[in-house]
Amino acid sequence: MSLQTLGWLVLLFPLGGAVLIAFSSQVLPSKLHGFIGTLAIALSFASAVGALFALEDRGEEERQVVTVAWDYASTVGVDAQLSLLLDPLSIFMALVVSGVSTLIHLYSISYMESDRGYTRFFAYLNFFVFSMLLLVLAGNFFFLIVGWAFVGAASYLLISFWYRRTTATAAGIKAFVINVVGDVGLVLGTYFIFKHTGSLDFLKSFAGAEEIARNDGDLVAGCLLLLVGAFAKSAQVPLHTWLPDAMEGPTPVSALIHAATMVTAGVYLIARMHPFFEQAPIAADVGAIIGCATLLIAATIGLVVTDLKRVIAYSTMSQIGYMVMGVCSAAYAAGLFHLMTHAFFKALLFMAAGSVIAAMAGDQNLDRMGGFRRAMPFTFGCMVIGGLALSGVPPFAGFFSKDEILALVMAREDWHVVLGVLGFVGSFLTAIYTWRMIFRAFFGEPVEPARELEGGHLYHAPEHTNPATGEVEDTDVGFPGPDHHIAEREWSMKVAMGLLAVGAIFGGLLQVPKVTHVLHTFLEPTFHESRFYEELEPSDGITWIGLAVGALLALAGIALAYRLWVKDPARPGAIRARLAGVHGFFARKWYFDELIDSVVVRPFAMLGRFARDVFERVVINGMFVGGPTGAVRAGSAAVRAVQSGFLRYYAALLLLGITGLGLYFLVAAS
Amino acid sequence: MSVEWYLVVSALVFSIGAGGILVRRNPLVILLCLELMLNAGNLALVAFARAHGNQDGHIFALIVMVVAACEVAVGLGLIVAIFRRRLPIDVDQLRELQG
Amino acid sequence: MAEVFFFLASIGALAGAIGVIALRNPFYTVLALVVHLLSLAALFLLLRAEFLAAAQVIVYVGAVMVLYLFVVAYVGGGDDPIRPAGRSSLRWASALFAGALFVELAIAVLGTGLTAFGEEGRGWFAGFGTPSEIGRLLLTDFLLAFEVASILLLVAAVGAVILARRRTGLEDPREISVADLLRSPQDKGTLGEAERGTMLEAGGPPQR
After folding, report:
1. Interface-testing mutation among A648, A653, A666, with chain B (most B C-beta atoms within 10 A)
2. pLDDT tens-digit profile of A304-316?
């Protein structure tokens, strides 16, 4: 099959899956829907692999293929077509997305089994995968924006999946609103770029990028707005507040959307738009700085949060900060490599966390966890692998990808060096918080659920409650199901986690520095006109020092975490007491929520109240609506008075009319 | 007598009938005033027939008589129906059809 | 001679007309109209409309007015009070309108430029206005009008019968008007409000 056909198939399988599940939701048994959904994504992955081979078969020069299905509109210079761009970058993203999605679907088959909304879950997941693939495969801005919006909608649907939980719906709304801010940025950015290049198509747009002056005002504005969109989607400061709250969704959702795929859309966007960012270095620099800031802020918050999933969420935010810093500093292949390895180990971590939470019957609080090591060996093993990969311990995947980013950032040699140093600090913090989480959950005295599990019995909570607020729930549709499923007992969860663990262990081999550069060569056709792609090469010295420092920092972090949370459990309490102010500041998430509330939410709420009370009531209802209707009503009341019902009045009017008419004719004739 | 005289008489009777409709409250009498107006029209028609010298006006007047007879029959039927239902025979009080 | 008859007949017609609108007893008004119709028949004769005059007397006076008399005898209606309650302004307005109408018509007639009106009338041939002539015209030139008029008579007859028939079974029909249906009832809104008696006694339709 040709590359174009395979490209369309990659998109159509998830869409078909979603539609099929949705329309057969009442007809087929729900178990079957899980398999249909997984099969659809698996077929999509297979098509992506096929597309990969088809792309590789082509010559070096022809690796960027546009396939157009339909011309929407060609008016006034706006060419909106239903087109896909199949080039190494998009195929790479499609492979990552569909591959990880397949495994997560497999995991969800068992994990969500007792949930009454099982079918809906798979329909939404398939729809999400379709939207994400649309986003990465889109061949023009128009389609990209469509995919972008769909992904936001799917994220909302999945975060508020347990829709009767008020915390979940509030989180969904928060995510959606921040996403919309990003959408606005994206659309406005597109406009600014379109103004100069005159085309919405990517390849044509990029070709026109070179003619724009460097740091042209419009282009900088456009790229900054694109960054707004990217930051909203990728949860970078200051548009990041939705990501921790998004952990209200089921764990597979967190694994898929908020670790591996949706949050990486921003990174993809910056990488795709690299011609513009290279022509507007100011915007790229802003992006790099914000990426660096985010990775530090998120790491500090991850040190103090007590919810298991939220630790992993902040770690996601931090790692994406690395990716953003990378692609904004023109380390494209490195950033995308980290995207891939991060997808593997972050999804793995989330899946393992889901298993632990299931063993705790839905409770996510780290304070109440402990000693699961013996009770859940497989989960523990996966968590350890994921944690090692995340911390950047060689030879696991995260080590190579993160250090490559940092090495390339240092190789820029201007003020970017500062960013590199901060990146190393961040990786130290990463190791600490990751292993804090692992030690607290798996080491120490087994808590009651762990003891029960060791005895072979899965812990059940006395009554089902919302883990965040403690409200009592039932287990009907809209709330989590009554049963929980852990990895040790479900084969599909084991397979999924196992495959991801393999990826987390061996994935780094794709880009061992100086030895292999599979990704770099693969992605070359996309980035060939970039100024930095070939030239930016860290010197040998920087590379080796970077690798060594990275490994040392990771191991030091693990050792420190071990010291604090295993050897000397009283120490963290003492440290917290001494640094209470700092701890409080981190625990309140650097007060970003409060800041956004006072700067954005309150003024808008006031505006809304004003609009409703004053403007709507007085001006619109009173004047614009009330005015004409009042006039009409008064007029018709006046006219109605004529219809008195008195026959003689009617006759009088008739006579008057005739007389008047006769008078008119008399006068006219004279 | 020239035709004008007859026409003036017709106009006079017509006006009297019109005024009568406005003044009287008994529907029977109103119908009678209606008859007055119809007859005034008949007179005018016959006068014009005499003036033109053909009998089209006569035929017209005959048909008008037929119509008047029908209308009287139906109108009186209505009045009888009203009376049967013990409603007051007074057009000022029969005013349901109002806005 | 003809002028004398003309004036006599005209005075009769006008007197009858004024009698119709002025007399209070409906019986007398019917009689006044009879006088008017007979005078009109005389005027028709003066205008050589023999058949029409005969038809006027036989049909109009003989049938229609007799019907009227029957209905007046049945319905009655009583004497109208001389001063109608309220609405006195309407009398002056009606006088005004009627007067205005008459003035206009008179101007139209007398001030017309048509010269034919000033004369007696054009050629009068033998057989003008005779039944044979009328009959010939009815069956040749005006056949459609003739047939339609007969259908109209049929329809009117049927309609009158339907309107005035007594509805069987209902002893004391309470009339429900459209307004009653549309008014939102304070009570159950059922058909019978038996306590109220007749509408005449209640002084009008039931107010809710």
Report:
1. A648
2. 888 999 999 999 9
**What mean pLDDT is predicted for residues A121-147?**
92
Q: What is the DSSP letter of C177?
A: -
B36 to A316, B17, B62, C32: CA distances (angstroms): 101, 5, 15, 11
Q: Which residues of A touch C104 (CB under 8 A)?
A: 659, 662-663, 666
pLDDT, residue C175, reads 60
Cα distances (Å, whole numbers) of residue A9 to A99, A123, A528, B8: 15, 18, 27, 97
Find the CB nearest A655 among B22, B25, B99. B22
* Nearby residues of A294 by Cβ (< 8 Å), 6 or more positions away: A236, A237, A240, A317, A318, A320, A321, A324
Q: What mean pLDDT is predicted for residues A552-560? A: 90
Contact C97 A663 (CB under 8 A): no
For the segment A192-211, the average pLDDT, to the nearest whole number, is 82
Helix (H) or strand (E) holding A66: strand A65-75
Across the interface, do C163 and B39 touch by the CB < 8 Å criterion? no
Return the SS3 of A81: strand
On whether the CB atoms of residues A34 and A102 are closer than 8 A, the answer is no
Q: How many CA atoms lie within 13 A of A28 on its CB side?
A: 17
Residue A141 and residue A190 in contact, taking contact as beta carbons nearer than 8 Å: yes
The pLDDT, as a whole number, for residue A124 is 94
Asked if the C-beta of C187 comes within 8 angstroms of chain B's C-beta atoms, the answer is: no
Q: Give the CA distances from residue B20 to residues A515, A644, C10, in Å, rounded to whole numbers and listed in that order.
A: 119, 20, 19
List Cα–Cα distances, C23 to B72, C12, C92, in angstroms. 20, 16, 18
Does the distance separating the beta carbons of A659 and C100 come in below 8 Å?
A: yes
Q: Which of B14, B21, B26, B33 to mutate to test binding with chain A, by most A CBs within 10 Å of its CB?
A: B21
Contact C6, C43 (CB under 8 A): yes
Chain A touching partners, 3 or more CB pairs below 8 A = B, C
Band of pLDDT at residue C189, cut at 50, 70 and 90: very low
Model confidence over A569-580: pLDDT tens digits? 777 788 878 888
* Residue A222 one-letter amino acid: G
Residue type, C138: L
Going by pLDDT thresholds of 50, 70 and 90, the confidence category of residue C81 is low
Residues 6+ apart with CB under 8 A from A134: A11, A143, A146, A147, A150
With contact defined as beta carbons under 8 Å apart, do A578 and A451 qualify? no
Please give the residue of chain C at the shortest CA–CA distance from A663.
Answer: C104
> What number of other Cβ atoms are within 10 A of residue A582's Cβ?
14
pLDDT in tens, A500-523: 999 888 888 887 877 778 888 888
The verdict on B29 touching A (C-beta cutoff 8 Å) is no
Identity of the amino acid at A9: L
ipTM above 0.90, yes or no: yes
What's the predicted TM-score (pTM) here?
0.69
Q: A236 φ, ψ to 5°?
A: -100, 160
Give the rounded distance of the alpha carbon of B97 from its chain centre.
23
Query: What pLDDT shows up at residue C208?
Result: 47
Query: Scanning every residue of chain B, which has its alpha carbon at the shortest distance from the alpha carbon of A649?
Result: B22
Average pLDDT over residues B48-74: 91
Cα dist from C168 to A347, C165, C172, whole Å? 88, 9, 11
- Which tens digit of pLDDT belongs to each residue from A180-198? 999 999 999 999 888 888 7
pLDDT digits (tens, 9 = 90+) for C34-55: 999 999 999 999 998 999 999 9
Note which residues in 106-135 of chain C have CB less than 8 A from chain B: 106, 109-110, 116-125, 128-129, 133-134
- How far apart (Å, rounded) are the C-alpha atoms in residues B71 and B64? 10
